[in-house]
Write a structure and sequence with these properties.
Blueprint (H helix, E strand, L loop, with lengths): L1 E5 L2 E2 L8 E2 L1 E6 L2 E7 H7 L4 E4 L3 E3 L2 E3 L2 H5 L18 H5 L5 H16 L3 E5 L5 H10 L2 E3 L15 E2 L11 E4 L7 E6 L2 E5 L2
Parallel strand pairs: 1-6, 2-7, 8-9, 9-10
Antiparallel strand pairs: 1-4, 2-3, 4-5, 7-12, 8-11, 12-13, 13-14
Helix pairs in contact: 4-5
Amino acid sequence: MLTIHTADLLIPGDGRSPLPGGAVLVEGRQLAAVEVYEELAAAHPTARVRRWPGVLTPGLVNPYGPELLEQSYHPDPREDLGSEPLTGEALESLDMTDTRWGASARRGVQRMLAHGVVAVRGELRRPAVIDAVHRSGLTIEQRLADPAGPPSLASGSFATALLPQAEATFAIFETPELTTCVATVISGRLLHRRR
C-alpha cells in the first residue's frame, strides 16, 4: 500500500533546501519519492494520505544510547518510583535483572520515539536492552567519542537524509525548533503518534 505523508514543511537533510508543502511517498519499508504534495497526490491518486502539522524531517539520532538505556532505569508507571529515569544510587538500590533491564529499555525506547528519535549511538552490551532496541526498529550507530553534556531523551542530530529508495524513516515535529514530536515512522511503520 502506498502512503503519502505530508507536512507544512519538509526538511530533507543532506544540505538540500527545505520544501514547503513537501511530502514523502512510502511504499512498504522504503521512500518511493520525495516531492511537493500536489505532484505526489496527482501521480498516485489512490495512495492513503496522512497530513501532519509542522515539519517532516529525517528524525533524530540520540548520542546517549548506553547512558539512557543501560545506565538509567525507566520506571513502570505502576511502580512507586516516579516518572523520570533513575541513575546513580537510586539505580544501584534496585534489583536489576535481565528482565527488568529489558522492560526499562522498552519504556526508554518509547520515550525516545516520542521525541522523534530514530536511532541511538553508542555500544550497547546488555542482550535484553539490545533486543528491545532492535524490536522497536531503532538502529544502533557507532559512537566515536562520548557526547558532551548530560544525557537527554530529546538530544540528537538529523539521521540519514530523506532520499528515494532509502528506508522510510522520519519524524514530524510541531515546529522547526523540533521540540514537540507529532509522529515517528521507522521502516514505514508509524511507531509513535501524539494524541
